[in-house]
Amino acid sequence: MISIAIEKKLKAYQGQQVLRIERQFAGGSITKIYGPSGSGKTTFLKIIAGLITPERGTIVADGVTWFNAEAGINMPVQKRNTGFVFQQYALFPNMTVKQQLEYATTDELWIKRLLLLGKLDTLHDHKPEHLSGGQQQRLAILRALATKPKVLLMDEPFSALDIKMKTELIAELTIVLKELGTTTLIVSHNPLELEGLTDEEMTFEQ
Amino acid sequence: MDLTPIWLTLKLAGITTLLLLIIGLPFAWWLSRGRSFFKIMIETIITMPLVLPPSVLGFYLLLAFSPQHGVGKWLQEVFNVQFVFSFQGLVLASVLYSVPFMVGPVKSALQQLPPALAEASYTLGKTEWQTFRYVLLPNIKPSLLTATVLTFAHTLGEFGVVLMIGGNIPGITRVASIAVYDSVERQDYAMANNYSLILFAITFVLVITVFVFNKYQAKSPLE
Questions:
Q1: Quick one: how far is CA A141 from the chain centroid?
Q2: B120 to A84: CB separation less than 8 angstroms, yes or no
Q3: Residues of B whose CB is below 8 A from A144
Q4: Is pLDDT of B208 > 70?
Q5: Which chain A positions have a beta carbon within 8 Å of B121's beta carbon?
Q6: Alpha carbon of B138: minimum distance to chain A alpha carbons (Å)
Q7: Which residue has the higher pLDDT, A201 or A33?
Q8: Helices A108-117 and A133-145 sit at what angle, rounded to 10 degrees?
Q9: Between 20 and 30 A from B67 (CA), which of A105, B23, B118, B132?
Q10: Are B102 and B143 in contact (CB under 8 A)?
């Protein structure tokens, strides 16, 4: 279970606005987050990961306080064990497909399974620049899963995939996420996307 | 022809470059992360050698490390180390004089990397040092090479600052650029030409290596 109650000032096109969120996510649940551009969806994911610090509030995951502004608690990003799929993938250009996963984990069996899951096993020695957009996006998802994260935060993770690949990957992901018991938050600009994958929904408004 | 000034120059450039790789890279990384008035002040000071006459820097180093005053006197008395008119003095002066050539390109390259690269590494549980070593540094290789070669080549060409703090002691502080000047003063133009040609050839090879290497580097997806 993750309990979040935070406040963060955002610089928006129309001036400054405040992102206020109070929400609980059940352990192992998969939540779809959608809303217009600039409404703070990515900022919200980064706040949970510990990459952005809110001005006020608390974040508690499975009874452990990750953030408490009043008490001055801010657990470092490295210790939160969150997987993050960045919208622009953020793959390391100097590493091959396999090296990106080896950088995250030493569990060879898990790496093998992830490569099969993302259908990247035959491309394991390719660097990101030699992968298509869809392959890069799949690698970004696999890398985020490599640490077997407690919380998985995905920012538009399926935007570059064709419908067939998306359907197959979502089916596989559902199994893996349930198996790991990972609490997952997926940002999507399309409210109709992710049918069958998510348990809950969360809407951001401008 | 006495090749000692050439070897001395190469030794000085090698040691200076190595020291600046050790000191300059973490320093460039620190400067690349966020801005503050303190960082602006530090950056201004380390950029000064780019615009300051080398003799000015050499003059202040001469004053600071003179065995008769302050720091120089203390170093002499406590550690029996003398920076004025010694090879270690040349190294100190060269390191200070070449700092902007190492730190500048590396800092700019680090700032141009997408912040998400480091963020992705942190979410994988990696420390800032691991992120710097395995993600950031390998992705700025062309700039790193440029900075290394520029630092080396710039040290080869030092004259004013080296002359001020090191003087012209054969085998100790008489580097190639000073040997050229010395030869001209003695009207030995053939010798001056020999030293000049060797310096010209070395720097030409160094600079062309950078251009060739960077040209044939696989195109980065970051570009």
A1: 8
A2: yes
A3: 123
A4: yes
A5: 92, 103
A6: 6
A7: A33
A8: 150
A9: B23
A10: no
Q: What is the pLDDT of residue B17?
A: 97
Token pair recorded at residue B113: 């990397």
pLDDT tens column, B106-117:
999 999 999 999
According to DSSP, residue A77 is labeled G
Q: What is the ipTM of this complex?
A: 0.93
Amino acid at B83: F
CA distance to partner chain B, nearest, from residue A54 (Å): 17
How many contacts, defined by CB atoms under 8 Å, are there between A and B?
Answer: 62
Q: Which range among A12-16, B69-73, B110-114, B145-149 shows the weakest confidence by mean pLDDT?
A: A12-16
Angle at A84 between CA A79 and CA A87, to 5 degrees: 150
For residues B5-10, average pLDDT: 95
> Is residue B220 over pLDDT 50?
no
From B115, B146, B104, B110, select the one nearest B32 (Cα to Cα): B110
Instruction: Tell me whether A66 touches chain B (CB under 8 Å).
Output: no
Joined together, the tokens standing for residue B14 give: 């090698």
A103 and B116 within 8 Å at the Cβ level: the answer is no
The pair of three-digit structure tokens given for residue A205, joined into one six-digit string: 């408004």
Q: Which residue of B122, B124, B133, B144 is the best one to mutate when testing the A interface, meaning the one whose CB has the most A CBs within 10 A? A: B124
Contacts of B222 in chain A (CB under 8 A): 93
Q: Percentage of chain B surpassing pLDDT 70?
A: 96
Structure tokens at B101: 């050539």
Query: Which band of pLDDT confidence, cut at 50, 70 and 90, is reported for residue B217?
Result: low
Per-residue H/E/C for B104-162: HHHHHHHHHCCHHHHHHHHHCCCCHHHHHHHHHHHHHHHHHHHHHHHHHHHHHCCCHHH
